[in-house]
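User: Just a sanity check before I run the rest of the batch. Below are the structure tokens for the first item. I only need the designed sequence back.
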């Protein structure tokens, strides 16, 4: 057994998601890691129940997301559609430069509105 080589750990496919209630009807979901094929379902599992409650504002902080692929985009769009159908609101907060580029490249930024800070999101 070769002990000179460190054990392989797949840190690329981890996603940390934290939900915090800001006020009545307003939730902040902080996301960090890679939002891709391997992690998008985890984020969807967190976001979908939040937007199923009409009148909620769900703010998704993407400042800690370093990678976003088509599966991640699909997740965000599906959550947006659910929010629209229930009367909830979905807003992206401080997407990283890479995420911002992907949103712009795909035209998703025209549907999913982004804000620099939580405080800059209108009520």
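Assistant: Here's the designed sequence for the first item:
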């Amino acid at each position: 057994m070769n002990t000179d080589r460190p054990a392989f750990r797949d840190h690329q496919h981890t996603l940390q998601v934290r939900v915090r209630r800001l006020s009545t009807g307003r939730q902040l979901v902080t996301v960090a890691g890679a939002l891709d094929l391997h992690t998008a379902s985890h984020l969807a599992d967190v976001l979908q129940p939040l937007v199923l409650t009409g009148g909620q504002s769900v703010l998704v902080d993407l400042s800690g997301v370093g990678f976003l692929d088509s599966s991640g985009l699909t997740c965000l769009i599906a959550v947006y559609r659910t929010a629209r159908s229930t009367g909830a609101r979905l807003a992206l907060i401080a997407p990283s430069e890479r995420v911002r580029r992907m949103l712009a490249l795909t035209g998703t930024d025209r549907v999913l509105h982004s804000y620099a800070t939580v405080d800059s999101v209108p009520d």
